[in-house]
Amino acid sequence: RRVLLLGEGNFSFAAALSETPGTHVVATCYESEEEAAGRGGAARSIRRLRASGAEVLFCVDCTKLKEYFLPGKGEFDRIYFNFPHCGRKAGVVKNRQLLARFFHSCAEVLAQEGEIHVALCNGQGGTPADQPRREWHNSWQIVAVAAGAGFILSDVHPFKAETIHGYKCTGYRSQDKSFCVEGALNHIFTRSTAPLCFMPVSCKTQLGSQKVSFQVPQVLVDKINRGFLEVNSSHPVRTIKEKLSAGLSQAFPLQNISSCIPLLHQGHPDGVCHSNIFWITLSLGQASSTEKISQGLANAVLCSRFGQDTDKNAEEGCSIPEQFYLRPSLLPHAQAIIKQRAFSPGTLQVLSGPVFRKCRITPHSMPVFHEMLIVLAISRGTENSCIQMLVDNIKTTVNSLHQGISGIKPSIILQEATSFGTELNDFAAFEWQLGEIQHFLCMGTDPDPSGSCVGVVRTAPDELNSHELVVVLVSLNLDLLAMLLCGICDWRMLWTSDRRFLRQFPEGELRLFKSFSLYPPSYVHDVSFWVPDGEEFDEVTFHTLARRVSGEMVVSIQLRDNFQQPGTGRRSLCYRVTFQSCDRALGCQEAAEMQLHFREEIQQHLAVTLR
């Protein structure tokens, strides 16, 4: 393991590290050998280093590392910079600039999965780990500075000088004097995944006798074909689906029918707000050769709300309409199965797959999630007992999973829809649009036992039931369940491309998630504009544009002001937009560029007048 140490004072830290087996140390300092050797104990440490086979270099500028270490010599697995400082009475701004240039320099000599260790005195870093914590403007803002060079803070822990044999800190105000390291912290940075490049993605499908294609909405490009539910997937969403299926199969015969579920629907879904739908325009023939083709995603199209045969429609002259839409729910496909009586009474039919809904930006509101839809036909008069049996089975499985992960028993509540007291989350609110609901299934833990709605229970409309049978449908949001069970606080983490996420769930094992990006910096920008006269402002589209422009880097949008001009009646809105990534580095400049692009997009697509 190649280890680089920068800015060594008396080389006592490097000397201690050189005794670690399997470690090749390259110890450097900014001063000349003559100046460095004059510090107390430095000459002895340098002799120890050289005797152990370590390299000792002088006059090394930490902001120009590629000038000293050529790529052919090998990259470093770890870089240490303990208590960096510009010297003398340099203020926080100069030290931030030093760190910024240092991180950019490290990017050129650090191994792909290497680490950068930066030790800072108590309060300097500006993270919540500092106790007490300085005001942000008076700190070194180390996480934001590192993000500008493509690094994320993956761990932070106390710098325990007393455990390092022979270590003595020195260099107070560029002098051979020690300084206080009580409460000091070691910050460990790793490389972030590269920013996503959203190339156009086109899906092809057979519609009747014609080949058609459609361009995937940009906000879904990195989510449309991830295969989380496939057999070889170890994603927690699939694990939870399999565990729930196994639990249900102990009480009921069960059949999975998740293959060949149409990705596209035709026509307008009853009762659903137009702005919540991802509308699609189909085109005949092959997709452009410049576009990336995603095969097998749209192998069928639901040509009406209750599913008609696509070949039959083609024979009868069913022309391709100008627009289709991505399925917002698996419910229409289940209703098609019910209408065709393609089920066995008493047998659970389980459908699962991703569904797509435009929604506002919140940590628990997602434009795509995996739905598990359970369909059960039962004898009339037994609905309540069967619903209770289904829900009890789901409760038992979820309780077992949660206790196995965290040791805490969650609160699983079946609430009457008419008595649902807490505010509906976006999942529950959209389910209301799809039709009448009998019960909400909510999951929570102390101190919020009422929790979040993770499922709904409904019976099929009367026209789909028979005199003898009633069909019960239970819809579960697998993504929300994964978040609550594994302690994932931001839905975007489920869709990260960073391999460190799935490494925490080997072979489908469910565990409490530990974030690999700590205290990500946030950047706040305000935007205000005049709304077109006489028009209702479409806030969902506003949020969707923010998602698209930022690549899901907007974590919050809050209405700050709603002003109506006296006399003219013109209305002005002001929103606060907060940019923050949960899994990759986001620098100040990148966020500012996103904000400028966002302003252009809302002006173009919402016809607002910027202020």
Characterize the structure shown:
The protein is α/β, with parallel strands linked by helices and 611 residues long. It folds into 3 domains: 190 residues, Vaccinia Virus protein VP39 (Rossmann fold, 3-Layer(aba) Sandwich); 281 residues, BirA Bifunctional Protein, domain 2; 88 residues, Alpha-Beta Plaits (2-Layer Sandwich). 24% of the residues lie in helices and 27% in strands. It has a 7-stranded mixed sheet. A 7-stranded mixed sheet has the order 13-8-9-12-15-11-14. Strands 10-16-17-21-20-19-18 form a 7-stranded mixed sheet, sandwiched between helices. Strand 23 and strand 24 form a beta hairpin. Helix 6 packs across helix 9 and helix 6 crosses helix 11. The longest helix is centred in the middle third of the chain and has 24 residues. The two termini are 56 Å apart.
